[in-house]
Records
---
Amino acid sequence: MKVKYKRADKAEGPLLIMEDIRDAVFDEIVEIEMPDKTSRLGKVVQIDKNKVVIQVFEGTSGISLPDITVAFTGNPMKIPLSREILGRVFNGIAKPIDGAGEIFSTRYYDINGRPMNPVARVYPRNFIQTGISAIDGLMTLIRGQKLPIFSGDGLPHNELAAQIVKQAKISGDEEKNFAVVFAAMGIKHDEADFFVKTFEEAGVMDKVVMYVNLADDPVVERIITPRCALTAAEFLAFECGMHILVILTDMTSYCDALREISSAREEVPSRKGYPGYMYSDLASLYERAGMIKGSKGSITQIPILTMPNDDITHPVPDLTGYITEGQIVLNRALYQKGIYPPINILPSLSRLMKDGIGEKYTREDHPDLANQVFSSYSRVQEVRALAQVIGEEELSDVDKGYMEFGRQFEEKFINQDFDEERDIFQTLDLMWKLLKILPEKELTRINPSLIKKYLRG
């Protein structure tokens, strides 16, 4: 039953404060009716005896405190879901913005989902092919994994996200059951247009669901956007049996929204002003990925975040790294060389990669090949440092081979056009081709039988 109050006591930023409220429930949705009969939504974020703090999704600007009606619904925020959401674009609080009408469903789903029970989880195995060699070959994305992309301001993470959406696919008969849920937080209008246009031109829009919170939308919506997206992903995965890839960009904008609202609530700040509960808040989002026993579907997550000042120790990438299963790190020096995508493979890793590649999943040579390429590229960095001291002409023939390997690896393997899609076999064959630059005796990480089959054969 709705309880209505015909006034509010105070407004601070996105928060509405009311006194003498009875039986309010934490996280319940509140409907605010304006004098002109328009309405706004909010949710209860704090209760102190009879004092209630409400977070207004559309912000409190233009609200006349004595003239509004505030109705407490007694229910958490729920959104209607059906398979018809595929191909649609919604705003940050799941309202359609593509002009195609409302979503009609007999069932509404609470957006405050819970992390998966570890006991009910199935260990991730099968890989998802992104068509990007650096990812597929060296930090393979596994179905049900959480693999974030650590980027920086000005780096092409939006292009990389769009390319992954365009090209991502799973092997076998499950291909038709694969879809992408794309959530954008705090992006600019031209970025939103870029994503929609790219998906439409690539012909993949019918398998994409978009939730878009723009930079000029209320900051409070940014807290809701990933939860709406993950609720949609859970519906498609566990009720429709689909394999869902969720891309969340930009998680730094989400965390900044958390900090802004925490400050408005006058909470005690932690590192760099972020709230102390940011770790558990991020975990409540990231841990909604995975596979569940008895369900055919799966949820794989790629959160994308921009590191302020390219600082990987900043609280947002730092906490994200603790929760997730690896990271893909973009590098500004590679980007300045004109290399796209500028993925720095040395600090990047996929912790679940070892269990989703090899004979049953990709190809028998994949594990040894990836280890050898990592090792060889690591040696390249040592040789480059040495060349800066003594000059490249003074290097040994083996070291000169490593210098050439490093150049070609960056230019031909990491570097890849935005519209270029390589399958896993093309990627592995390219890795073998590059290793031919080095003397065979340097290939110490590969089984000799594989060298005989793929290098000499």
Note: DSSP finds twelve helices and 20 strands in the chain.
---
Amino acid sequence: MSVSLHEGEPGHHLQESFINTQKNIPAFRRYIEDRKNSDSPSRFPLYTAYIEGWALYSEYLGLELGLFKDPYFRLGRLSEEICRACRLVVDTGIHAFGWSREKGVNYLLEHTSYNIKNIENEIDRYITWPGEVCSYKIGELKIKELRKRAEKELGNKFYIKDFHDVILRNQGPLTLLEKQVNIYIQQYRQQ
């Protein structure tokens, strides 16, 4: 269930499909998931905190929708949360504390349900993309913070679909997302 929410609906699939239908956004900004990282820095940036933040927030929506009632789905969600926490430890260990690839692999083997092939692929990604793992959580926390602010300031004028529309129309950094949410709050307050 967690992977379905993260990668499918309302996660990346919805996010990418939605942005691709927006005619007022130039093509180079609409296609956010090309993942040809070898072209860096000669391409436009992916705002990982925004992209992956939405996907983690989508998993949270599954909780709100009651989609984790089945014990198997709850176990899967908790397993993913543990894996993400461990990924944060490994990303920090490698880039701030000089961990070796082997130490990162062993840490994930000991603390997660990932298999060795998955772990090796993950570790290689962390080594080549410092802070990417951290950006997932930063994005999720920012979206939740913005939602809480909008709910508090708008009260009964808060409408979750409109909030999600604001979030999905953004494809830039979290600073831009925050500005857009602030505009949304001001517009709805005036109604």
Note: The mean pLDDT is 90.
---
Amino acid sequence: MVVVEAEQIVMLREVLAATGWLERTEEFGRALRVTSRTPGGLLLVGTPDGEPWHLAAHLDDESRLGDVPGLTPTLVRWKPPADAPAHLRVGLERLEEARRGETLFVVAEEDAPVPLLERVDDARRVGATILALDGGDRELRGLAHESLTVPPDEALLSFDGAQHLVSAAAGVDADGGRRSPRGGPRGLRRRLAKLLDTVAGPTVD
């Protein structure tokens, strides 16, 4: 594991804040939290080659720790195995059942395939809220009510890193924090600092 000086971690935090990524992910995460109010109504789907497993796990954690049932995602899969557990064999047909009051969250680092775009369009027409975390897909972004684009050439924030920030932001309430299991408020920036420390490794004096 690479050991990073404390000054480097502080600089990384400041650079990330200066780019506006904290604000953008915070705003998108707030939209995700506000629209995901119906338990079971947050439909999370990726592309055939990129199912958002980690994001699903993070959102599930945020839902549980923050007591926000609507953030528990339903992971929609392209070809779920017939013998998979019930919560892991939800197929694309679930998107055809999307309705008003539900949120369809599309995560696509590469361009979304046409079959997905068609289902997204249908879901939007029946009143579902569409959110998109994309890598530059204009068609997908055009269908979304709220979108966050992470360009492929973005040097500071990876697509995976954006998913971490969005899930963390979704767990923050309107007052800028949320209650942890021990009762203390946990703001986004405090949790981002913990995330950076974990990724960078222990600091040395």
Note: The first strand starts at residue 42 and ends at 45.
